[in-house]
Each structure stands twice: as C-alpha cells, then as structure tokens.
Amino acid sequence: MTENAKPSSISRNILFGLTLAVTVLFVVTSVVFAKPPVQASDGEALFKEKCVACHTIGGGDLVGPDLQGVTERQDQAWLKQWILAPDQVLASGDPIATELFKKYNSIPMPNLGLTPDQVDSLLAYLGGGATTGGAGAELPAGDATSGKAYFVGDKRLENGGPHCISCHSIAGLGSLGGGNLGPDLTTSGFVKSSAAFASFMGAPSTQTMGAIWANTPLTPQEQADLYAFLSKASVTQREPSALLQIAILAIIGAAALIALEQFYWRKRLKGVRKPMIERARALKR
Ligand code: HEC
Ligand code: HEC
User: What is the extent of the structural domain holding 28?
Assistant: First the structure.
C-alpha cells in the first residue's frame, strides 16, 4: 500500500491537473463559441427561424432560390453538405455552388452553424412537399439623405437600434469610414436589390446582425431610406478625394506631432538653461 502511495498521488495530481485544464478549456470554449440556443428541433420551425429571410418554398425567388423541389433537383449528400457549411462548399470550388452564387447576385449563403441533426430535419421538411408564402412586402420609396443620417448616427432609429457606422464602412463616407466588425457594405450583394436588403434586414439570420436587430427592428421606412443610401453609395466606389483627405490628415497629424515635440523641447531647454544662467549670475555677484 505504502509503496503505491507516491506514484498514485502523483498520478492523482496529474489527473487533477488534467481535469482542471479540461474544465477551464471547456468553460473558455463554451463562452467563446457560445451560439444562441436552438429554439425548435423540427424542420418547419427551423426553416421559419433561419431560412425564410432568404428563401420561399413555392413563393418565388428571394435573395436565394425558391426551394420547392430542391430535394429532387439536387443530390441528397450535396444538400446536406451545403446546408451544413455553404461557405466551405463554395470555397472548395464546387461547380453547382459556383453556378448558384453567380446566378444569385454573388450573395453567399451564410453558414448558419447548424448541427447535422438539424440539417436532417430541414431536409425532411423540404422534401415533404410543404410550401410557404411568397416574398415579403416591397419597400416604400426611400430617401438617401435620411438613409445616410441613420447610417452615421445623425438621426435616431425609431426602435433604438445601433447605427450601422459603428460596425460597417461604405464608400462615400469620407476618409475615416466606419467600424470593421461587420463587412464593408460597398460590395455587398445585399445592397444590390431592395428585395434582398428588405428580407435580410427584416429578420437577419446571421449571428451578429440577428442578435442586434431581433429586439430593435428597423421600420420599413428606415429600411427603405437605408437602402436608397447604400445602393447609391455602393456604385460610387471610394472616390480619389477620400485618398487626398487621408493624405491631408496625415500631414496635419505629423505637423501636430512636431509642434508638440517643439513645445516639450523648448521646456526642456529652458529647464537646463535657467539654472545655468542663475548659477552664472550667482558667481558674478
Ligand atoms: C442570407 C440569405 C440566406 C439564408 C438565411 C439562407 N440561404 Fe440558402 N441560399 C442563399 C443563396 C443566396 C443561395 C444561392 C447560392 C449562393 O448564392 O451562394 C442559397 C442556396 C440554397 C440552396 C440550394 C438551392 C438550389 O436551388 O440548389 C439550398 C438547399 C438552401 N439555400 C437552403 C437553405 C436553408 C435550409 C436555409 C436555412 C437553414 C438557408 N438556405 C438559409 C441564401 C440564404
Ligand atoms: C454591432 C455591429 C453591427 C452593427 C451596428 C450593424 N451591423 Fe451589419 N453586420 C455586422 C456583422 C458582424 C455582419 C456579418 C454577419 C453577422 O455576423 O451577422 C453584418 C452583416 C451585414 C450585412 C450583410 C453583408 C454581407 O454582404 O454579407 C448587411 C447588409 C448589414 N450588416 C447591414 C447593416 C445595416 C444597414 C446596419 C445599420 C442599420 C448594420 N448592418 C448595423 C455587424 C453590425
């Protein structure tokens, strides 16, 4: 018994250390990779939650294709892989994905972080002959000036949502642009068609956007104004004058630094010179 005490206490320590490490790792990864809990496990509920922003079944194309009959026109294994990780399928150069991507305005279908079980229930739902309604309502006429004000934060959003500029840049904002947590919207496919923009902004299904707008939705008029601004800005591209502004800002910045340096330098010279002069004077006396 006593002979075993030492090795077993060492191995117990190792075991304890390992358990601790695994626990810490688990806590950290579950915090970092936490996903919103899945609301429902069956395909129909999942479809309504995650897919209707971009797809109808039998109601015509939206941002993505009408999914009626998709389980017959595409191979089952391909569909499963696609819904699980469309970004990876597209990145792999898959010909069907590339073709669809081109056809649907180069808007990529986002990876929705589904589990294989959820994909199976979605495929069962899609293959079951169910249909959904058609596309959502069209946007009213929008005003690009208000849209810009909403984007940059000069005008409050009715339901108190955050301003786009804190996370997004777009051409035409001037030199400093916006935040970069979200993609630059200049080349986004979602600002090329009002139906695509409205269906996405009405119920964004991606992680960050979904979390932001679930409780503070944009009104249809706000969507229309934002669309008017964004669709116009996206064809402008970043103008050369923005580059000039950046250059001027850089020069002003450098000049300010030099001025600041001069200021402190002067103080330092004085700080050295003053006691020297005083000492000299004291010696004269
Ligand atoms: C933000 C928009 C968006 C969301 C949300 C979305 N899709 Fe898509 N989907 C697309 C686009 C766009 C395409 C066309 C391919 C492309 O452009 O990448 C597509 C293509 C597809 C295809 C292939 C269609 C065909 O004709 O072969 C299937 C299947 C599909 N999506 C299923 C789903 C399912 C299921 C969900 C919900 C879990 C979903 N999509 C959510 C945009 C979306
Ligand atoms: C807190 C940060 C944040 C704010 C505020 C925000 N977004 Fe986003 N947005 C994101 C992120 C991050 C993505 C990438 C997808 C995701 O994770 O949701 C995104 C994606 C998008 C996309 C899809 C772009 C593409 O091509 O894939 C559009 C369109 C968009 N945002 C529009 C807006 C508009 C319009 C506003 C203001 C009304 C706004 N966003 C405010 C963070 C933000």
Answer: 1-34
